[in-house]
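From: lab user (bench 3)
To: helpdesk
Subject: output format question, protein + S-adenosylmethionine

Hello, I'm new to running complex predictions and I'm not sure whether the block I got back is the full result or only part of it. Here's what I submitted:
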Amino acid sequence: MRYIGSKARILGFISETINQTFGPLKGAVAADLFTGTCCVAEMFKAQGAQVITNDYLRFSYALQVAKVKLNAEPASRILYEEALAELNALEGIEGFFFEEYTLEGTAGAPYARNYFSSGNAKKIDAVCTCLARWRSRGDISSDMFHLLSASLVDTVTKVSNISGTYGAFLKIDDHRKFKPLELRPFTFADNGFENLAYCQDIMDLMEDVTGDLLYLDPPYNSRQYPPYYHILETAVLYDAPPIYGLTGRRPYKDQLSPFCIKEKALPALLDVVRRARFPHIYISYSMDGIMDYQELCKGLSSMGKVQSYFKPHRRFKSNNGGEGGGPVKEIIIYVQKR
Ligand SMILES: C[S@@+](CC[C@H](N)C(=O)[O-])C[C@H]1O[C@@H](n2cnc3c(N)ncnc32)[C@H](O)[C@@H]1O
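Helpdesk reply: Thanks, we reran it on our side. This is the complete output you should expect:
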């Protein structure tokens, strides 16, 4: 999945740095508390760690359940395969996604929005409605709900008429818009441990989690995540939010992250590290991030031994209003807490 700040392309660098400094992850408790798409947490799991994940976005929580928390299909009145077959066979209905995010549904409204084909939007509405009904009746567990929602999120990203984020839709149709919406099963990786998944502001979580190694990948610039992924949030929450503007965003004032605000990011990150109940902490950061690198290292040095590892990396590129494609130096700052 295309995601701002995704570490999918530098997993080797992260893994090498951890293996050189911490050693093998097998049997260790490893946390990834800004997990986003979960690619780093999945790597921890594949290397035999017990894994703790967190992100304050709901769609990320669904991915955490599907990719990391679950070791096998969760117990549920409706079985996974049955549920997927039933959802894929649903007839589309005209609901929130059709009415708000398609050209047909928004015709005559103040804003015409072109995120989805009418057919796919109606299917999303049908799937969301069915999931909500199953959940409220107790036909599926919370884990099954999030597992199925993760399949929905995955397919929604593949049929969206966007250039990379939901910060804007394309005016000219991309071929993705015409792909059929199909929920596909996740395959489960079993590490033999109970893995934990959270959907919280990290500032509220630090006292509740502990382990051997903590990986932190905070946002690196001032772009708040919720408006760029609002449609994925709505696909999981299906709560008919009071959306606004051309792009039909969810309100996100109560989700403003201090890590995206220049004067708040550094104190917030130092606070997280100070409160962390983990002896080994790895922080991903890019050289042109909003925090000053020297100040960050200085602040971290007061809490332990600090070493930095560097790698050149091409940055996230979206065709529409995104950043340029120049190289960014990726850094991992390793803190051994005293
Ligand atoms: C750089 S991205 C992480 C990318 C991830 N490592 C990946 O490869 O997909 C930063 C993440 O931090 C999350 N985030 C931002 N502020 C947060 C907060 N206060 N609490 C929890 N998560 C937060 C965002 O939702 C986003 O997914």
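A quick orientation on your result: Residues 75-187+237-251 form one domain. Let us know if anything else is unclear.
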